[in-house]
Amino acid sequence: MASSSLLPHSLLSLPTASSRFPKSSLTISSISFSLNQVSITRTGSVAFQPLVRRGRESTFGIARAGETGEETPAETGGDESTTETVEEESSVAVAVEEKPPKKPIVKLNEIIGILNKKAIEEAETIKVVPDIKPGDIVEIKKEKANRRRLALYKGIVISKSSSGVHTTIRIRYMTSGTAVEIVFPVYSPKIKEIKVVSHRDVRRAKLYYLREKLPRFYTFKKK
Amino acid sequence: MAAASRGRALISRLFLFQSSLNASPKCPALSIYSRNFSADPLPDYASESGAGATRIIEAKSGVMAPDSRRTGAIGIKCGMTALWDKWGERLPISVLWLDDNVVTQVKTVEKEGFFALQVGAGQKKEKHLTKPELGHFRAMGVPLKRKLKEFPVTEDALLPVGTPISVRHFLPGQYVDVTAISRGKGFQGGMKRWGFKGMPASHGASLSHRSIGSTGQRDAPGKVFKGKKMPGRMGGEQTTVKNVWIYKIEPARNLMWVKGQVPGPEGSFVFIKDACYKKPDKSLLPFPTFFIPDGEETESLEPIVADLGDNDPFMAGD
């Protein structure tokens, strides 16, 4: 038998030629000639080509079998490896034509940033979030539990903490003789409307000094 | 010199003789390592392992028995964010990325004495691997992986080498146990490491506001017991967070959104298994793993979110 004459390790795959040929339905069949005869049949198709870039792989072919199974994988594997090496060694122009356009490489530390951007885009469909800076006097309409009417808050923004979709602003205002500071996550679905009413010139990013100031600096009349 | 080498040769021959005595159809491995003399007939491997049976593992779905256990997966912790679910409730979220999980080795009772699947994740260049590691991947016929982890399974949950394990192996809404090496905190004192209360800040307490205080009794026993909680290196060891709820999975990018915290810093490997306490519903889990049906374009699939029910928790009073 031709297959038994070949050494086992020559059949077996080396790194991920599958990533270079991102076909959606690719069956990989791997055969192990271990002496305990744990023989393994075909596996499922490869799911998803990962986003992170791989290193330069060697050009040895995988023992790739057709849908029918592994009749003579030795011969097909051998043939495919030679054709692949020929493809690799061909001119740059031919390689560029055959390879699909490279996907943009995504680094691990960019994943969270990308996910946050997507989440912000989704949140923007609920309401348009204006550009808010410390010193703005804003009106916020928020949905409350077990209430039909939206609650209204009007106060001065004393700080803004940017962290993607969980960007928060801290509002300070005075109601019935009590000073109140509330933190609102700007992209929360419970906040139905944010409107910048006016702006006060400040020379700080965080206006915590207002806590020691007279209440008239953070009292606003709700209309 | 000559005597010593003769002695060594004698010992090795005795060992081989003993191993050939011990060789039997049940453990063909030993007979393989014994010396074959030309007068003896050639060993027939096929018939020798006939008693052990050729195990064929197929990649097809099965039914999960009550005592079945399926594999876990290896993920990479990408970071944490917060999300709001469909009712508007805020969820703290950890994002895990199941990068290219592939079964790299199958361990069976015949050879290793137990059933387990070794899963590999990530990618690695050939020049960054040692020769033994490289030989292991070559022998199994799998791509080079960055992290290998073994998951004990039951016999019906075995998968063939090379099977990809995608994020759809888990269901949104199920609970999982997440194991990882926690963040290293360095050398820490008793208050941070063990939660000691320390001592008063004033009222005459001298030079010992954060110290551990007494370490034992007096003459009896006259020693400090082993295991006494004391300052030392904290963190950087394997920790398991149990009953972590999966909120959302994205099959196109193999991402998993999980509620709450997960041990370890960003970029570290986490090992995800089905929860042992809040067990998931066995009839709903893909067993032994999720096999992609023909014609399905994974990259065009939408993210799958856990089912949160029909009752708005914020309108509970009605």
From TrEMBL, chain A:
The keyword Ribosomal protein applies. One of its GO terms (molecular function) is mRNA binding. GO terms for biological process: translation. The keyword Metal-binding does not apply. GO terms for cellular component: ribonucleoprotein complex; ribosome. Residues 60-94 are annotated as: Disordered. Keywords: Ribonucleoprotein, Ribosomal protein. Residues 68-90 have a biased composition (Acidic residues). Belongs to the bacterial ribosomal protein bL19 family. This is 50S ribosomal protein L19. It comes from Rhynchospora pubera. The lineage of its organism: Eukaryota, Viridiplantae, Streptophyta, Embryophyta, Tracheophyta.
TrEMBL record, chain B:
Keywords: Mitochondrion, Ribonucleoprotein, Ribosomal protein, Transit peptide. Gene3D superfamilies: 3.30.160.810, Translation factors. GO terms for cellular component: mitochondrial large ribosomal subunit. GO terms for biological process: translation. InterPro entries: Ribosomal_uL3, Ribosomal_uL3_bac/org-type, Ribosomal_uL3_CS, Transl_B-barrel_sf. The keyword Nucleotide-binding does not apply. Residues 205-233 are annotated as: Disordered. Signal peptide: none annotated. It comes from the Eukaryota. Belongs to the universal ribosomal protein uL3 family. This is Large ribosomal subunit protein uL3m.
